[in-house]
Protein 1
Amino acid sequence: MTLESIISVRNLHVSYRDRKVLKGINLDIYKNRITAIMGPSGCGKSTLLRCMNRMIDLSEGARVGGKVLYRGENIYSPKIDPAQIRFRIGMVFQKPNPFPKSIFENVAFGPRINGYKGDLSALVEQSLQRAGLWDEVKDRLHENAYMLSGGQQQRLCIARALALEPEVLLLDEPCSALDPISTMHVEELIRQLKERLTIVIVTHNIQQAARVADYTAFLLQGELVEFGETSRMFTVPKDKRTEDFITGRFG
Amino acid sequence: MVDSAGKGFRREKGVEILLALAASVSVLVTIGIVVSLFSETAGFFKEVSVKEFFTGTKWTPLFSPAHYGIAPLVAGTMLVTVIAMIVAAPLGLASAIYLSEYAPDGVRRLIKPVLEILAGIPTIVYGYFALTFVTPIIRAVFPQTNVFNALSAGIVMGIMLIPMISSLSEDAMTAVPNSLREAAYALGATKLEVSYKVVIPAAVSGIVASFILAFSRAIGETMIVTLAAGSTPKLTFNPLDSIQTMTAFIVQVMLGDAPFGSIEYKSVYAVASVLFVVTLSLNLIGTWIVRRYKEVY
């Protein structure tokens, strides 16, 4: 089976004012695979993720150099509308951040602002189904999303992103605010989702990378130390620093 | 040892009593105002029926035959207040959105102090501005306009209210967590969509409260209307007409020589009571909305 690269990061540099956060990253994200970006806090993994859908634009003072190719096109080229990129490449954040609206309106938000013409309720149902939340919320779609538990809120945020049928879903430590059971649910969901879309997950949790990812990138102090198939990297790491990290010697 | 501890205790007690006295001054004064307001008002209603006061359509306490229907004063007040809100609500809200969502840091640092200066200008200056600057412009456009008119006073009062609406609304918008903005951006929302589909709905209670508080401030505003809106109590909704507000009537009588204890004198208290009840209820509603609909993010 050949691997098709859907996002290619080429010589990516990011600095906040004088501080260099990413120093020349090259990385390929393969279609319909789960790629984990792991590393200790402050290694630049969230910054790298935010570069893939131009959410980095919102960080004040961030300067981006190099390219990120999405389907062969540089998303940092001036003729690209960042809103269109984010419409195609969804994102889920560390802390669940549903809108203070009903469950239904949360999922319908993306389709509505992007002028969805089809059957909205069907789309909402389908998205909640795919996020594994439908059975828990189908009788209270019009309740405020804040009534849900933390884990449910995070799955709602995933459903909200799925409602736009994105090709890529970026997950920024999606389980860091969740308890172990909710984490298990979300990880299970991520594995199911890879049939339809490509997933990039940032995590500082080594076990999580090992559990869910097909490919893993190990980032340290703004540099990509190692990238490869998860099973290989966790058994025969090529770099001494990778080995030290996954055996828990630091980080 | 015991003795000094006792002294410390006494001093502590003394300070507490002093502080409590200081705190009670404003409460006692408020009670005093309310009592004098309502007792004089009661005296007024011994001579004028409640029915005439609230349903009469003529207000001529200084001429004979004297009529005591408050409707013209209320209409005048409402006319000016509504004009002021038509000016202040959109401009105040727009500047709040700009400051909270669009303005770069440098611009925000420049504009916020300017708005605060606007809020600190004495109202008499606004009154002069209305009379000597805005009114001539209005009269150039609509020659039939009276020298004293509701429109000029209303527009200038609206300008005065902008900083109040803007700063309270901006506080409400800045309190909306960034994670909600990021969520919307990540779904392909533009800045405008983030502002009016996420930030404004989340901050709506603070925005509405700022409107209500501004409205209440406009009803109680005195100087601008005294100078620019006229002193003709008239039941009209024509903004180009000269009118009289409740506050301007009070000034007029107090500056004139209504004898103490006379019916004209007491009518001031009746009008002031209405003013007091209206602004108090608006303020209560405003603070209640802020508390009741506070978003818990």
Note: Chain B has a mean pLDDT of 91.
Protein 2
Amino acid sequence: MSRKGFFTDSTTCIGCKACEVACKQWNQLPDDGFHFTGMSYDQTGDLGCSTWRHVAFVERPVPLPGHATGVGDFSWLMVSDVCKHCQRAGCLEACPTGAIVRTEFDTVYVQPDVCNGCGYCVTACPFGVIDRRPDDGRAWKCTLCYDRLGDGMTPACAKACPTESIAYGDLDVLHERAENRVRELHDQGIISAYLYGKDAANQPGTGGLNAFFLLVDKPEVYNLPPDPVVPTMKAKEAWSAVALGALGMAAVAVGAVLFGRRGSP
Amino acid sequence: MSSSGKDEPSFLDKLQQRGDGRNVNPALGTLLGEGAQQRVTDLDGANPAHTVSSSIPSRSGVASADSPSYHGLPAIKQPVWIATIPTYLFVGGVAGAASLMGLVIDVLGEKELNPLARRCRQLGTVGDMLSAGLLIADLGRPERFLNMLRVFRPTSPMSIGSWVLALSGGLNTVGLVLGRSHGVLGAVGKVSGCSAALLGMPLAGYTAVLLNNTAVPLWQATRRTLPLFFMASATASAGSLLSLLPHTPREAGVLRPYRLAGKVAELAMGYAMEHDARRAPEVARPLDEGVSGTLWKASRACSVAGLLVDALPGRRRWKQVAADLLTTVGAVTARFAVFHGGKASARDPQATFRPQRRGHGAAEVVPGHAVASDGKPFSFPLPVVR
């Protein structure tokens, strides 16, 4: 099977949230309550156990180059966030039960019948995607519609996107398409357009994202980390410290037994 | 549907009354979706994003053009662990250190010290059992705790730790039960006890790696020193607890240097850990402010007092008891401070963003990686001369 993924183009997102609805409906996810957050049109907040697509809304007091608005200096930034299905996935490398696996489509999938809800993946994800549902006790995240891919179908969110802001397909094809799009935008004068997490060269900390993005502002604006790293890459130093500490523990115990004073009260 | 009036609930009302928020009538369609298995009891309680967004704006002040954030929302998820985890961080450490001490006394100590070695083993075994219980209590699906031993994954400190704890607990029990037998059974018991004691060292230290190997800024930033702090603290606590139990004057001669060395190391490593965290001010913030800040200061004070009272001249029992209690309280509080500090730093988006901009993200471990994901060079605190 070829490597599949999403290319999410923030410049064509119109913030209709059809992806959120399609995802909820296809995966039969429960709602998260109906609340107004006071954060622009974003009433969803973030990705979570029962929210696998999330449209971010940023009202920016800076215009996009070449765009004219009737309200002065202003631009909308919208992007549909999703699990990134990292090449080096923090959740997968942290999962102690083997519940999180990499599928034949190169996506990351949580097996609900194996997950015992230890919550370690929740802390290991550098993007804050995966979450444990308190009443269910298991970790959940986007499956990249594993059940649809098996039948050769497009994931629900990409199918529902009216502007093709969410494109699904083979990663090679998506990469080419994304690079062409960036070139097109640069020609139009939107020079801030760039690809976030396209490959290991762009984001060595994750080895590249299977669901990568085209953004026009800093990643932080969209709640994406600027230089994410899979925690496992840094664990070597911690294990070295454990080895050093083990020597110390043994030395203290040996020293105390050998040199501990005889007959002291 | 509206013609039916107020008495009859509409179709949608009926669906809403089912209360799982899916609005799917199982009589009309089967629940086969990937998320359909989610057990739902409390719709509003399940997604904390709304409370977070309304009650916890960015703790790092107003987002500026230099360091923006998304409506001040957390960049990563807060750890979902409950209070049993920091309790385990303490109990597991004590169990590991005590098991190791038991082995060292057995190998190097004279016969007079055998009862102390046995007490060490007992403390280790009880600690292992208690640890397993504390960990299982935290699981979302406790009935599936055996899945922890379904695979061995070297990249996951939790997988390694589960195996270490399971083996250590099992072997310690065998060692304790068969330790006094003769012949083959006795040999099996001795080998088991020895193996369990050796596993005590990783048991006391891996709990720190468990925290270090996460995206939580405070925990990830202290990866060079947190293991040393936990292991020193484990030694100090094990020494204090063994001293609190009744012991002979000869045993006291061994326990005193053991305990004191542990307490000194714990203090030193605590300061080293704090220093490590302070490489980034946003990361160290939870050690100064809020619940975790108070806990951390209290823990430092208890540890200092525990050492000072212990080192004072005088051999009265109450003095010893006070010193050991202070050290124990300090060690427990330190675990809770680190735990809640991690939660607080996960809630602060700037603790994730700003250090990464300064090259504390992947740039720390990937040689030659000089620009962030948006192509901007990292801003190091000092100008880089090339």
Note: Residues 1-5, 53-62 of chain B have pLDDT under 50 and may be disordered.
Protein 3
Amino acid sequence: MGSSVMEELRKFVAPEFIFGLEARRLAGRYARKLGGSRVLVISDPGVAAAGWTEDVVANLEAEGLLVTRFCGVSPNPRDTEVTTGARLFREAACDLIVAVGGGSVMDCAKGIGIVAANGGSILDFEGVDRVPAPMAPLICIPTTGGTSADVSQFAIITNTQERVKIAIISKAVVPDVALIDPTTLLTMDAYLTACTGMDAMVHAIEAYVSNAHSPITDLHALEAIRLVSTHLRASAEAPADLELRTHIMLASLQAGLAFSNASLGSVHAMAHSLGGYMDLAHGECNALLLPHVMDYNFAMTPERFRRIGGAMGCDLRGLNDRESRSRLMTHVMALRKDCGIDDGLSQRGVRSSDLYRLASKAIEDPCNATNPRLPSREDLLALYSEAM
Amino acid sequence: MTERRDWTRMRESIIGLGTDSSRRTYYPELLARVAELEEARTSLRRSEENLRTLFDSLHDAVILHDWEGRVLEANEAMLAMYGVTRETFRDYTIADYSADAGPASPVAHHLRALRDRILNDEPQVFAWRARRPLQPGSDFDVEVSLRKVRWYDQELMVSVVRDISERKRLEAMLNQSQKLDSLGQLAGGVAHDTNNMLGVIIGYADLLLERTAEQPGLRRDLEQIRKAALHSADLNRQLLAFARKQTIQPTAVDLNTLVEATQKLLRRLIGEQHALVWKPATTLWRVWADPSQLDQVLTNLVVNARDAIEPAGTITLETANILVDEAAAQFLPDAEPGEYAVLRVTDTGHGIPPDIQARIFEPFFTTKALGRGTGLGLAMVYGIVRQNRGFLTVTSAEGVGSTFSIHLPRHLGAECADAAGPAAELRGGPETILLVEDEAALLETGCRLLEGAGYRVTATPDPLEALRLVEEGLSPDLLATDLVMPGLDGQQVYQHLRRLRPGLRVLFLSGYAAGTLDLESLAASGSGFLQKPFSRATLLQKVRELLDS
């Protein structure tokens, strides 16, 4: 499979984004510019408790916009929440959406936008390029460093009936504006910091080894890996350090730009299945599965993994592929553990009897399409077992 | 391998190279939607135009107004009906468009009452008096249907106003016609019975006068009785004229000739202080009418005109030909479409107030001072014109004057020879006369008048008895018979007897002809007619005339 610009066309999609301290304060101005008058602000109870939701609402209202709040988004947003939000959007005759929160909130906001514009159920739009009509303008204000939903063309929603996450991949869900404000990260606790940081790391690594990577995505991916590796430990230990937070936020943005265009791999395929079944944090799932999938993929593109190692500050000089693979695994595991993400799936309630089901769901995930090594269901089953 | 191919396509889509992966423009959809909206707007506008056309095509006025009476919308019929324009109709309120029913019940009060009723959601239909705000004094009768509507989210009332002044006018016209007809019937009936009695009075007075030639005192008294009876008979004649029960002898008449012949008399009637202007039409259709009746009509109208223009003024007599078509006939009381010769009498007098115009043709209705008029003049004019199949119109404006127009249908047939013979000498004779009259008193009067003149008279009140007498051998030279009798009428008696005695002459007597007598055929067969009540002289003269013919 070709990965060079000599062999294939390459595209790079990114929304308009503003990165920097207090960027969130531009929400009202942008909402006005985008033609909004009645805004649906989507958030979750955690973010609301931290005060970010009302902070943004006040900013919108100061611009004379009418605000309707929907703060009922749970971690791993559900199809039912999308339905509720879309009904609220229509009832309040909204014309613009502002998402204030992490990946769950932003994905849910995308789902609400799709259903509000197209009708039906969010599950109707599963897959790639399945969204016919564009949605109302969407402004994303991320409050976690890692998900990158604020710049991506992805939305992941839980099908509550099947207990599985579905992926919606479409240019239609790329937000109109992302206001990326590192200040918002100050309210995250250490564990959430670790999970989201590891999420950004996984995004970057999977994008870098993706069979759809490109020179542009490579740049962002390697820089993201470097930033997370350098600052995540310190940031998890000193959550109030705004400079560290800014590094992690920038890492998340760069990882997002990379994976949104190069796509991901089997870590995400498996994490979607796992998260949908166990209702675990996405970043946590990714962190738990990452070393095993890297190990599985290493042989397909050892040069790229060596460069990843380089970016992580893991010295692989003079080591052969087998030794390098082993050293890299150890390095990643150590980073994970240092950030507080320890143990395996079994400690998180996953039983051996669940694994077949998880693998069966994971093999259906479109993220497998860009994994450097095309997995079979059995491969995924084996990888889940290793992660136990 | 199939699994592999699927992953390939998915990869291409994810990295944005799929056929549906590119950002697309929604501009065509937008344009289509705009076109759709534009089309909807056009169709809406057309629909609005169509409804507007319907709205403006309504004959009834439609007015949208609020509870305070402010007018928001109206159709073309409303503008025409109320004499306002599209620019000005909103300047007036419903109160301005309504006539006060009187100082005690102003429009506002009525509107408040209506509002309470409308609030119950029932549509209301009621009669109303409307006003043209720019034309004082032109109030008109309307029928209004009022209901509550929603109009641009506002609760309004919609009034549908129908101008019923025409309907009311036609109703009034018909009422007036019917009233005059029934008055005529009543007057005719009374006059008929009174006539018989007057015949008796005059007859006996004449007999007594014959026998009291040497008693001047008694004679003077008798003369008074006779004069009073004759005066009553004259009033009766006028009543009968009004009732169209006068026996008429119509001929072809040229109204120009008729007016010219009476001009001298008319000038004397109206006196020196008034001018009489005569404007004859150069060519005038002839009419079929009784000339003596027309004289009465003309005299009456001129006298009325004179009385209207005290102290001085002008009376204009005028003739013209007029064609009355179907449409015009609708607006003229009693008129039938056709060709008419018109005689107009116009004065420059005080005019007739509108409220009494409708009553001027009623018998005994008079505005003249007590003793100056009987109230029968115009009633007689009306009856005569109607009896001659014509109609009359009156236009009058107070302070300006009045015009009475007599319309008589054009006559196209031949002229009837005028047979006005010299006055015959009063004499009797030895001939036999069969007198049939169901009214006993009158039978006896007639019998005595005729016997007094020397005739041999066989009298009977029973028509059948009359037939029997002749069958049994009675051979009368003249049959004098009442026209209207129980059993056989006068004409039937005559027809029976003529078969037995072909040379028999006949004199019909009647209070009124009532259309039972064909006067033209009567004239041809050498028979005669005498209107009751008659004096001794007219009876004897007529009898002699017939026996000698």
Note: The longest helix of chain A spans residues 215-237.
